[in-house]
Design a protein that fits this description.
The complex is a heterodimer of chains A (about 450) and B (about 500). Chain A has 20 helices and three strands. Chain A has two domains: about 140 residues, no CATH class; about 220 residues, MetI-like fold (Orthogonal Bundle), CATH 1.10.3720.10. The chains are: A mainly alpha (about 450), B mainly alpha (about 500).
Chain lengths: ~450, ~500
């Protein structure tokens, strides 16, 4: 109903067009309000994005730095090689327990040499400052260079995660009161050692390339092995989903007749695109592990599951790319005597290739970040400490994957692992960003408009 | 011969076939390829296909069938008395397989010669000891029938593999000879090769169907198994979720574990509801602004930025919920101030974060739909004197409504199936409560916890995950189908 008919009984007031009346003002206000809602919605979305990214960056950058202790360790022959024959088998008999006192002594010597006033005057007191990995590091060095026994060698060893947390502002004096691993006196000592350059925060390459560590050694954990696990998984996904996806798309776009079977395939593909990822995990568990007896936690199985998950994405984008190739190309090829198959494989597919690759890379990026199905096929809960030894072991040996490793870290009790989880996310996002940028460049550079 | 090398040698044979086929075709045409029906490479490919494909088909069928045949034979060897109380034939067979594997490894390591390994009258304690010494896993002491069964298993497997290798090679050679025989200058090799490629394409396309079938079968089999062990009425109508660690029955014969889906469904729907309350207004208004008001410059910046939110992996959102949003909500609603919230993991935490995740999903879907409303309708509305917002509210949105409802339903199905955010952000306690600041749990989170725990895989405590997965699958599929139906049924037909 228009207002004219409602107000027909009373005569319409005469007003100037240049003056806005009440009703127009109201309508204009409503217009402005509506517009503001839109701006507010976009702003809210962008604020969420900014908050998310700043949270990731501010929490995660710390993981790329680690506190190291530089100290000169005296490789005491009396402890390390009692027989004195430098026989490698004898040296190997000394376990890391034999090395720990040497490292602690070295640090104690630094403290006493510098003349720092501290109630911590015993060797045992130094244990809280040093990572449990230090002894293994020294032992590995000695086994590699047995002739250095008896020398004093400078080592850069990891500080314990509490010391690291103290320097990064995660551990405070108030919070250590209830901590059985470290006391306030230790923190005082750290404060005194920092100006001497003995305790220093430095860039930690091992976080990116190293292996995961046990729950109590947060300072040692790295993402390297999980990264390799993800890499092998992506190889499987690429090797399977690209050919299968392209073949499916070619069939559906170029050859499939209009019939029930084709409809069935189409319906299945669109449904699979909407199936929750965890259901693919159940599929992987039931079919690949329970039924086919493939090894648990293996990147091969993870790759297979992710392949099935990414296929719809790749098929949809490949079909779009094939559709974009104009029919005149096919007609010209058929016209000079090519068979239908030749026209498709020699002419249409190469022209559609940039689009296909773009879709594949985006599909891979999606697969790289997927976690839920990996939980069910056992890629979590496994501590990825060993690098795969070769190609076959890379595919078949138990491993983790980047997102699974991040989840694993997030679950651990030590807050030092939270920082590493955020750091892991930064690395993961860098990979995703790179892949997406490559996809965008491919699209911009090679896409042809007809 | 290991399967890997078998595959390689058959492929090598195929390669040889390719070369031979090419040459024979050229020779039959007198060295001039113009006299051939097809290009020479098609004759080669034809031979490659004839050599490799039948051999591989046989290989795959053999590999699938052989374990069943051998197992049936070996099971016959195990007397029923051998199956201990509380155990079943599958466990005994697993023991047999392990023993056979251990014997294989011993022989491979050179610690035992073939005669000893297959000697039927071997001393059991001796064999057990040697297996243990070599570091092979032997769970219990091996009994005589198990050892016999394992030896039978080994020898049958070995002979089976031998026959398989021979059969595969014979078939490959036969195929190659047959292909060579038909390679003549007027043989239509291209048609054969193209037909094979087409079959390959169809096979690839069928993988989508196979995946769906695989999902449905793996869910159905295990769900049926679960309902054999656990009453369906309890699963659907029991209002408590309390799996007991050992499983088992109480003195009335009822299962000790209470595996009711209701609290999980409630948690799932509650979290999804909060997520939609966050995502739908923001997403919808963002879409309206981007498609109706924004200049193309703003649009080209804001749209991709919003879509970054969709590209971020869910594990990131999960961590964001657990470590940032949870503590933030605690500081607002926690004990220190309002006292509504006990722990950082709660329905609100997961719902809010999931809402953020769904914003770009809602906005880009609605954006497409709003853009599909023809400009003529807007122009008509403007012509009648409506303002922009009146046009949007009274013309554009009603026209786009079926599509928008479809988009919201798709977002809801996404929210129901989301796993990582709820695993990390929603807590683990299954509760039927109205308080959004309490920890609750969802179907997906329980699928993860029941299948990654220590529960025995054949127990109802683990199998319930498949029943939950089935419910989840049906729910999301139903929502998707319903969304498509609404879009199709109520879509305004323009043009």
């Amino acid at each position: 109903m228009t207002d004219a008919s409602v107000n027909s009984s009373e005569p319409r007031r005469k007003v100037s067009l240049t003056e806005t009346d009440e009703r127009t003002k109201r309508r204009n206000a409503a217009e402005a309000r509506f517009r503001m809602y839109g701006i507010a919605a976009i702003a809210a979305g962008l604020v969420f994005l900014v908050v998310l990214l700043t949270t990731i960056v501010s929490n995660g950058t710390g993981a790329f730095q680690q506190t190291f202790i530089t100290t000169e360790v005296y490789l005491d022959p009396a402890k390390l090689d009692k027989k004195g024959q430098r026989n490698l088998d004898d040296i190997k008999k000394v376990s890391t327990f034999g090395y720990a006192p040497l490292v602690q002594n070295a640090l104690l010597k630094e403290v006493t040499d510098a003349g720092i006033e501290t109630p911590l005057t015993k060797r045992k007191h130094m244990k809280a400052l040093i990572s449990a990995s230090a002894a293994a590091q020294v032992r590995d060095f000695v086994i590699a260079n047995p002739d250095r026994i008896g020398d004093t060698v400078e080592f850069r060893i990891l500080a314990s995660s509490r010391v690291d947390g103290y320097l990064k502002g995660r551990v405070f004096r108030e919070s250590v009161a209830r901590d059985k691993n470290i006391d306030a006196e230790h923190l005082d000592l750290v404060d005194a050692l920092v100006p001497l350059g003995v305790v220093k925060k430095e860039f930690n390459l091992d976080f990116i390339l190293g292996a995961d560590a046990s729950e109590s050694r947060a300072e040692q954990a790295g993402l390297g092995v999980a990264m390799l696990g993800s890499f092998f998984m992506m190889l499987v996904v690429l090797g399977l989903s690209l050919p299968i996806g392209v073949a499916t798309s070619i069939y559906l776009e170029e050859f499939a007749p209009q019939n029930r079977f084709t409809d069935l395939i189409e319906v299945n593909i669109s449904n699979l695109a909407a199936v929750p990822s965890i259901v693919f995990g159940i599929l992987g568990l039931a079919v690949f592990i329970q039924f086919a007896h493939l090894p648990q936690s293996a990147p091969l199985v993870g790759g297979l599951v992710l392949t099935l998950m990414t296929l719809p994405t790749i098929i949809i984008s490949t079909r779009a790319a094939l559709k974009a190739v104009p029919p005149s190309i096919r007609d010209a090829a058929l016209g000079v005597g090519a068979s239908k198959m030749q026209a498709v494989f020699h002419h249409v597919l190469p022209l559609a290739m940039p689009g296909v690759l773009t879709g594949t890379i985006i599909g891979l990026a999606q697969a790289l970040g997927e976690t839920a199905p990996l939980l069910l096929i056992g890629m979590v809960g496994y501590i990825a400490t060993n690098f795969p030894e070769g190609l076959a072991s890379g595919f078949l040996d138990p491993n983790s994957a980047m997102p699974a490793q991040i989840y694993e870290w997030a679950k651990r009790a030590d807050p030092a692992y939270y920082e590493r989880a955020w750091g892991g996310i930064i690395i993961l996002l860098v990979f995703l960003l790179t892949m997406n940028i490559i996809a965008i460049i491919l699209r911009r550079r090679f896409e042809r408009r007809w | 011969m290991p399967v890997f090398w078998l595959i390689l040698s058959v492929l090598g044979l195929g390669g040889a076939g390719y070369v031979a086929g090419r040459q024979r075709a050229l020779a039959s045409a007198g060295g001039d390829s113009r006299n051939l029906h097809s290009l020479p490479s098609y004759y080669g490919s034809n031979l490659f296909i004839k050599t490799v494909v039948p051999a591989f088909v046989l290989l795959i069928i053999w590999l699938l069938v052989q374990p069943f045949v051998i197992e049936n034979r070996v099971i016959g060897l195990i007397p029923t008395g051998e199956i201990a109380e509380g155990s079943n034939i599958n466990l005994v067979m697993a023991e047999v397989r392990r023993t056979a594997e251990g014997l294989d490894n011993l022989v491979a390591l050179g610690l035992m010669d073939e005669d000893d390994a297959s000697n039927m009258r071997a001393d059991i304690s001796d064999v057990t000891q040697r297996l243990k010494d070599a570091g092979q896993v032997v769970t219990s002491t091996i009994t005589q029938p198990i050892l016999h069964a394992a030896q039978e298993y080994r020898t049958s497997s070995a002979t089976g593999s031998l026959y398989m290798t021979v059969a595969v090679f014979v078939l490959a050679f036969a195929g190659m000879l047959f292909g060579l025989k038909e390679t003549q200058s007027d043989f239509r090799a291209r048609n054969i090769v193209e037909a094979s490629v087409k079959i390959l394409l169809i096979a690839a396309a069928s993988i989508a169907i196979l995946t769906t079938v695989g999902i449905i079968l793996s869910l159905i089999f295990n769900t049926v198994e679960f309902f054999r062990l656990y009453p369906a009425s309890q699963f659907f109508f029991n209002p408590t979720w309390l799996p007991s660690f050992g499983g088992g029955l109480d003195h009335d014969g009822n299962p000790l574990s209470k595996l009711g889906i209701l609290p999980l469904l409630w948690g799932t729907l509650y979290i999804s509801l909060i997520a939609l309350v966050v995502a739908v207004p923001i997403g919808l208004f963002a879409a309206i602004y981007l498609s109706e008001y924004a200049t193309s410059k703003v649009r080209s910046i804001a749209k991709p930025l919003l879509e970054i939110l969709a590209g971020i992996p869910t594990i990131v959102y999960g961590l964001f919920a657990l470590l940032t949003v949870g503590p933030m909500l605690i500081s607002i609603f926690g004990d220190g101030s309002l006292g509504w919230m006990k722990a950082g993991t709660a329905v609100m935490t997961a719902g809010l974060v999931m809402g953020i995740m769904l914003i770009p999903f809602v906005s880009s879907l609605s954006d497409d739909i709003i853009n599909a409303v023809p400009q003529a309708m807007r122009d008509g509305s403007y012509g009648l004197g409506a303002t922009k917002s009146e046009t949007i509210k009274q013309v554009v949105i009603p026209a786009a409504l079926p599509g928008i409802v479809g988009a919201i339903l798709l977002a809801a199905s996404r929210a129901i199936g989301e796993t990582m955010i709820v695993v990390l952000g929603a807590g683990a306690a299954a509760k039927l409560s109205l308080n959004p600041f309490e920890a609750m749990t969802t179907v997906t989170a329980k699928i993860v916890s029941q299948l990654t725990g220590d529960a025995d895989f054949a127990s109802p405590e683990a199998l319930v995950a498949f029943a939950l997965g089935m419910s989840l699958f049906i729910m999301t599929l139903g929502l998707n189908v319903f969304a498509l139906y609404i879009v199709r049924k109520y879509r305004e037909q323009y043009d």
